[in-house]
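Tokens in:
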């Protein structure tokens, strides 16, 4: 009796023999590329992901002339229109993410129904990868007990639910896509066993998940779809299209945050694209007059070459006028050179806002999500330095994370403000992504995470804007075992309230004077507004505002309300609830009553041992500085205390003593030019909604004396 044959187990760091065609395919293969991206203010992204796959394949295929790439589908359209454009395709290659999944699947499903013998290949961050190994598994093969984990069936379930998909690609796509096409040339993709980093259902109905290909660390061999002319056909076909460049100058993320899937395809090591290539791409954008660039790096400013990149963009704008704006995801724990790069962008008028990614200040939460924030003293120093240089910052904070409570959010937000953030905290709802560790069902069970499936909407975007009629959805966390449902509603409402009274600047000056002059903690001030706003008999305007925030938050939680508030009469777009409350107060002429109620709350905080003169001056100053429409004259204002100087000093982390005297100011409320930076007068509600409330959101530039930013794009932060 012969010995049983031993099968070799391929380890994750090994690769099977990769297919290479030795002769061309029997006929030319037409390839349809699909990367559906949202359109922002009539601007669309170049389809970078499928463009990278296309140029890599064309460069390295054994017989590239036998593969014809159709014009990429880069934006949403009716499904029938998409299928007409793809009618000649022998193979679809689709890049999936949360914002395009449902529409992409609808195209793939109908394509396969019409052409059952043609091929559908998908890749991208939204393809669930059961074999993705998080830090807790230490990047080794899962132990037998780990195989029992619920996550291990996610990829198979994905295939069973979408049987029209022939192959799903996991991780970096360029090399895998090339070898898939080599296999197409060899046998029409009959044999998939030697293809790395893919999963599929074989002819016998058995689920297969092939070993992964090691990621690329040397990116010098990856051609640029911009410089190679890959997108020239799109530019020719759509001469009137305004483009947004998605730009990758490095790849990788050194952090392990459980809510983020940025490293889902590329894991942790940061690899750089050659600087010469990057410089040429920057000038390509400028010469093609691309107005807006999204730098798709996880940590802009972490590599030292980002200083050179920033300078090149600044030089390009000076020479050509383009680009007009840059959006970056800043380094989580920045280095000194990180701020040199950001300052260059700011001075060139390119930087929308510098994002400080805090996400939470709660130690238990940071431990649960495996995130390490910068030290408090470093954060304070950075805020002070940037503010002194005129660089605006915005802090990201995620609501609904594990171990977070109402109390911890109250403390965390107050601490961030005390540490020097006075421009903007952007409060994001926690969304579950399939390739983030938080997408693991057992992770969610551990922290009691409840989710709701809700349509994806864009800030300042249009309601029901789907061209195809097919909605895209996300999974929002709306409760945890430390933040039950009512606590989540209270926390969400608190953040809207802070956004309204502090970062929309309705009451920022008196709140800061309460802290700086009277020594009252920010936490106590915000608690006072939340508690008093529950009393409709005494504070009816604030009670109405808090009721609106509560009702809206419960709507999100119950799945009956999108993330933003639709107002048909206010530009017919979706507003953050705090912005809409700001608009409503002004439209309904409740501004004065709101100030009277706020003054009573804050006077009660000061106690009988203090003079209320500085606080009353601060109230008068703040009310006079709010940018309102229909102003026909400048304003002369006289105060008895130097509260304006104290406020301005506190913004850059300096402290001035309170002084009494005569302090006179002239407030320019009438200058109006065509420049967004100097437009200080708005002659209609519609103009005010757009150019003041909307465009000033990111920097919180709602007071006279703040420069208005350049026009903003819908959906962009």
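Residues out:
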């Amino acid at each position: 009796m012969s010995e049983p044959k031993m099968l070799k187990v391929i380890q994750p760091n090994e690769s099977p023999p990769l297919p290479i065609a030795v002769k061309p395919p029997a006929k030319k293969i037409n390839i349809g590329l699909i990367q559906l991206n949202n359109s922002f203010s009539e601007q669309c992204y170049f389809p970078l992901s499928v463009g990278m796959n296309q140029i890599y394949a064309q460069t390295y295929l054994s017989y590239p002339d036998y593969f014809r790439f159709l014009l990429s589908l880069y934006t949403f359209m009716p499904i029938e229109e998409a299928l007409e454009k793809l009618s000649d395709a022998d193979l679809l290659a689709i890049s999936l993410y949360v914002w395009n999944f449902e529409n992409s699947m609808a195209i793939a499903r109908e394509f396969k129904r019409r052409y059952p013998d043609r091929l559908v290949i998908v890749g991208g961050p939204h393809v669930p990868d059961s074999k993705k190994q998080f830090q807790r598994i230490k990047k080794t093969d899962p132990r037998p007990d780990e195989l029992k984990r619920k996550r291990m069936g996610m990829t198979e379930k994905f295939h069973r639910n979408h049987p029209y998909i022939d192959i799903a690609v996991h991780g970096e796509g360029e090399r895998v896509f090339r070898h898939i096409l080599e296999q197409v040339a060899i046998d029409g993709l009959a044999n998939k066993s030697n293809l790395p980093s893919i999963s599929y259902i074989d002819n016998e109905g058995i689920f297969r998940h092939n070993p992964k290909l090691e990621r690329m660390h040397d990116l010098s061999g990856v051609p640029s779809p911009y410089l190679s002319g890959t997108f020239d056909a799109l530019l020719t076909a759509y001469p009137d299209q305004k483009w947004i460049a998605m730009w990758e100058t490095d790849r990788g993320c050194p952090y392990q945050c459980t809510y983020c899937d940025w490293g889902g395809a590329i894991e942790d090591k940061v690899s750089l694209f050659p600087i010469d290539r990057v410089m040429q791409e920057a000038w390509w954008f400028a010469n093609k007059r691309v107005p807006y660039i999204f730098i798709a790096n996880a940590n802009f400013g972490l590599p030292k070459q980002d200083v050179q990149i920033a300078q090149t963009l600044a030089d390009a704008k000076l020479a050509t006028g383009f680009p007009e704006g840059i959006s970056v995801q800043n380094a989580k724990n920045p280095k000194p050179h990180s701020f040199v790069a950001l300052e260059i962008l700011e001075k060139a008028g390119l930087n929308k806002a510098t994002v400080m990614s805090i996400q939470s200040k709660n130690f238990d939460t940071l431990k649960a999500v495996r995130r390490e924030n910068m030290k408090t003293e470093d954060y304070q120093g950075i805020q002070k330095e940037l503010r002194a240089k005129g660089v605006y910052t915005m802090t990201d904070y995620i609501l609904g994370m594990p171990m977070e409570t109402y109390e911890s959010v109250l403390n965390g937000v107050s601490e961030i403000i005390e540490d020097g953030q006075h421009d903007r905290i952007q409060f994001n709802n926690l969304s579950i992504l399939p390739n983030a560790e938080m997408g693991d069902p057992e992770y969610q069970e551990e922290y009691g995470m409840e989710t709701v499936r809700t349509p994806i909407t864009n800030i300042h975007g249009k309601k029901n804007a789907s061209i195809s009629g097919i909605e895209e959805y996300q999974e929002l966390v709306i409760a945890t075992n430390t933040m039950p449902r009512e606590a989540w509603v209270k926390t969400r409402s608190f953040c809207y309230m802070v956004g309204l009274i502090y970062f929309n600047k309705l009451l920022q000056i008196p709140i800061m004077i309460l802290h700086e002059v009277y020594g009252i903690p920010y936490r106590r001030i915000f608690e006072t507004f939340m508690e008093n706003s529950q009393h409709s008999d005494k504070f009816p305007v604030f009670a109405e505002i808090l009721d609106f925030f509560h009702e809206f938050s419960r709507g999100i939680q119950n799945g009956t309300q999108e993330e933003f508030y639709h107002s048909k009469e206010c530009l017919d777009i979706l507003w953050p609830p705090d912005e809409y409350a700001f608009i409503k107060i002004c439209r309904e002429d409740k501004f004065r009553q709101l100030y009277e109620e706020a003054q009573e709350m804050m006077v009660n905080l000061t106690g009988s041992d203090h003079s209320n003169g500085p606080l009353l001056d601060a109230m008068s100053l703040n009310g006079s500085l709010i940018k309102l429409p229909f102003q026909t004259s400048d304003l002369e204002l006289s105060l008895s205390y130097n509260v304006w100087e104290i406020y301005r000093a506190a913004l850059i982390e300096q402290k001035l003593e309170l002084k009494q005297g005569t302090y006179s100011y002239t407030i320019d409320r009438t200058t109006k030019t065509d420049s967004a930076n100097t437009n200080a007068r708005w002659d209609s509600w519609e103009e005010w909604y757009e150019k003041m409330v909307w465009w000033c959101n990111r920097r919180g530039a709602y007071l006279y004396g703040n420069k208005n930013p350049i026009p903003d794009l819908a959906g962009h932060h």
